[in-house]
Specification:
- With 443 residues, the protein is an alpha/beta fold.
- The chain is built from twelve helices and 22 strands.
- It has helices spanning 78-84, 97-100, 123-130, 132-146, 160-169, 190-198, 218-230, 263-269, 331-340, 374-382, 394-400, 416-422; strands at 4-7, 17-18, 25-26, 31-34, 42-43, 48-53, 57-62, 109-114, 150-156, 176-181, 213-217, 236-241, 252-258, 279-284, 291-293, 305-310, 319-324, 344-350, 354-356, 362-364, 387-390, 410-413.
- A hairpin with a 3-residue loop joins strand 6 (48-53) and strand 7 (57-62).
- Helix 3 (123-130) packs across helix 5 (160-169).
- The longest helix is centred in the first third of the chain and has 15 residues, at 132-146.
- The protein is globular and about 65 Å long.
- The chain starts with a strand and ends in a 21-residue tail after the last helix.
- Residues 3-58 form the RnfC Barrel sandwich hybrid domain.
- InterPro entries: Ion_transpt_RnfC/RsxC (IPR010208), Nuo51_FMN-bd (IPR011538), Nuo51_FMN-bd_sf (IPR037225), PR_assoc_PrdC (IPR031001), RnfC_N (IPR026902).
Length: 443
C-alpha cells in the first residue's frame, strides 16, 4: 500500500497543528492534528505508523491489515460530537460544521444542498439513492441542534430516482420537504439554494443565517449521523471519478475513501486512464471550480471529484480574451487554460455581476441569473481577441452567446474539454427554464 498523506488544512481557517510524532502507531480515527483557530480536528484514516511530518501534511505508512474498527470520539451532546468528529462542509466549502450548527434558528430552516451542481459528479445523488435513511436522520439532527422548524432538500428535478426514494423516506415527516431545482449551474451555490427555496436573495456579504437558515451538504448530513450514532470521526470521503478512463468514460462513485488517498490510486480504482487517448489534464474537484492536479496529490474532506480529461484543442498562438466569472475558475485558472490551449491572453474582463470580496475571491450578485455580457465581449474584441474563454454559469454563458459570435469572437467554455470527455452538452445556449415545474416545498 502507498503512503497516506493527510493535509493539515482541509477546512476554512488556519492549518491544524500535529499532535503525533514520527514513529507513532495510529489507527483509523486516531486524532493526529487539532485546530489552532477556526478549523476542525483531523484524524488518521488508516492503521499504520507516522513516517514523516511536513509543514503541510502528516505522512502515514499503512499496515498491511486494515481492520474496519475505528477509535471512537468521546460521548457528548450532539453538537459537541459533531465538533469532536472534525466534520466540515463536504461539498467543497470546508466550513467547520460544528460552528455552522451553533446558529440558533428558532423556527427557521435547514436547507440541504442536494443539487450536485458540478456536471459529471454523482456521489451525492447516489448517496440519497443508497443511504437515504441515514441522510434524513442527519437532517433531523441538524434541525434539532439549530431549533429549525423546517428542513428542505433542494434537489434537481432531473434526478427522478433519488427524488422518488426521498419522497418515500419523508412521507411521514411533517416538517421536511423537497424543493425541485432546474438543471442549470450553479443551483448548488449557497445563496442560490436560499433564493430558490425561500425566495430571498442575499447580498454577497450575507450568510444564510440572514435568511434564518443554514445550508448543509448531503454528504455532511451522513457524516453527522455517523458521529452522533456511531461516534465515528470524519476520516473518509465520498467522491466521483469520471473522464478519460479505460472503460469508456463511465463515472465511478466511491464511498468512504480514506482521506489522504492519492489521485493516482483513485484513478487506478476506476480502471486507469485510457491508454489509446492523449491526456489533457487531471482535475481535482469539478469542471467549474476544480483545479488541475497530479497523480501524487492526496484527497481531503472536501474533494468531490477526480477527472482526467481529453487533450486540449490548439489555438495556434491566437489572441484570447478571458471572461472571469465568480461561478467558475479565477483569473489564474483561466490563464492556465489559455496557456494549455496555446493561446495568447490579450484581454481580461470580469462578469458584470462578479463582486470582489475582502479576501480577493469573487462572488456573484445573483448566482445563475445574468443580465448580459455584451459590454464585456465588445471590450475583448477591441483588445484584439479572436477567442474568448469563459467560466460562466449556464445563464451567463447564454448571454455571452447573444453577442460574442456576432462580434466574431469564438467562444470556448472552461469546461469544454471536460464536457467533451464525459459526453455532456457544452455550456453555450440555455435551452431550459431556470425554474423547475413544481409545487413549492412539496413532498
Amino acid at each position: 500500500m502507498e503512503n497516506v498523506q493527510i493535509l493539515l488544512c482541509q477546512h476554512v481557517g488556519a492549518p491544524c497543528a500535529p499532535i503525533v510524532q514520527v514513529g507513532d502507531s495510529v489507527k483509523k480515527g486516531t486524532l493526529i492534528a487539532t485546530p489552532t483557530g477556526l478549523g476542525a480536528n483531523i484524524f488518521s484514516s488508516v492503521y499504520g505508523v507516522v513516517e514523516e511530518i511536513k509543514e503541510d501534511r502528516i505522512v502515514i505508512k499503512p499496515d498491511e491489515e486494515q481492520p474496519e474498527e475505528f477509535e471512537p470520539i468521546k460521548e457528548g451532546d450532539k453538537l459537541e460530537m459533531i465538533k469532536e468528529a472534525g466534520i466540515v462542509g463536504m461539498g467543497g466549502a470546508g466550513f467547520p460544521t460544528g460552528v455552522k450548527l451553533s446558529t440558533q434558528l428558532e423556527g427557521g430552516y435547514v436547507l440541504v444542498n442536494a443539487a450536485e451542481c458540478e456536471p459529471g459528479l454523482y456521489h451525492n445523488i447516489r448517496q440519497i439513492e443508497e443511504n437515504v435513511e441515514a441522510t434524513v436522520r442527519g437532517l433531523k439532527y441538524c434541525m434539532e441542534i439549530t431549533t429549525a422548524k423546517k428542513g428542505i432538500f433542494a434537489i434537481k428535478e432531473k434526478n427522478d430516482k433519488a427524488i422518488k426514494i426521498l419522497r418515500e423516506a419523508i412521507k411521514d415527516e411533517e416538517n421536511i420537504f423537497i424543493h425541485l431545482l432546474a438543471d442549470i449551474y450553479p443551483m448548488g451555490e449557497e445563496r442560490a439554494v436560499v433564493r430558490e427555496c425561500l425566495d430571498i436573495l442575499l447580498g454577497v456579504d450575507k450568510l444564510p443565517s440572514a435568511a434564518n437558515s443554514v445550508v448543509i451538504n448531503v454528504e455532511t448530513l451522513l457524516r453527522i449521523t455517523e458521529a452522533v450514532e456511531e461516534k465515528k470521526p470524519c476520516f473518509s470521503k465520498n467522491l466521483t471519478v469520471n473522464g478519460l478512463l479505460k472503460d469508456g468514460h463511465k463515472p465511478h462513485v466511491f464511498f468512504d475513501v480514506p482521506v489522504g488517498t492519492s489521485v493516482g490510486t483513485l484513478i487506478e480504482m476506476a480502471g486507469g486512464i485510457a491508454e489509446d487517448e492523449k491526456l489533457g489534464e487531471i482535475i481535482l474537484g469539478g469542471p467549474f471550480t476544480g483545479k488541475s492536479t497530479t497523480l501524487d496529490v492526496p484527497i481531503t474532506k472536501t474533494t468531490g471529484g477526480v477527472i482526467p480529461t481529453m487533450e486540449f484543442m490548439d489555438f495556434h498562438g491566437a489572441n484570447v480574451g478571458l471572461l472571469v466569472c465568480a461561478c467558475g475558475g479565477n483569473e489564474g485558472r483561466m490563464r492556465e487554460l489559455a496557456d494549455k490551449y496555446n493561446g495568447k491572453v490579450v484581454s481580461v474582463v470580469r462578469c458584470k455581476q462578479a463582486v470582489e470580496m475582502k479576501n480577493g475571491a469573487l462572488k456573484c450578485e445573483d448566482p445563475g441569473n445574468c443580465p448580459g455580457q455584451a459590454e464585456k465581449c465588445i471590450k475583448m474584441k477591441k483588445d484584439g481577441a479572436l477567442y474568448t474563454i469563459i467560466g460562466n454559469c449556464s445563464d451567463c454563458s447564454n448571454t455571452v452567446m447573444g453577442s460574442a459570435p456576432k462580434l466574431g469572437l469564438k467562444v470556448v467554455h472552461q469546461t469544454d474539454h471536460v464536457m467533451r470527455t464525459i459526453g455532456h452538452p457544452l455550456y453555450r445556449h440555455l435551452t431550459i427554464s431556470k425554474k423547475a415545474d413544481q409545487l413549492p416545498n412539496g413532498k
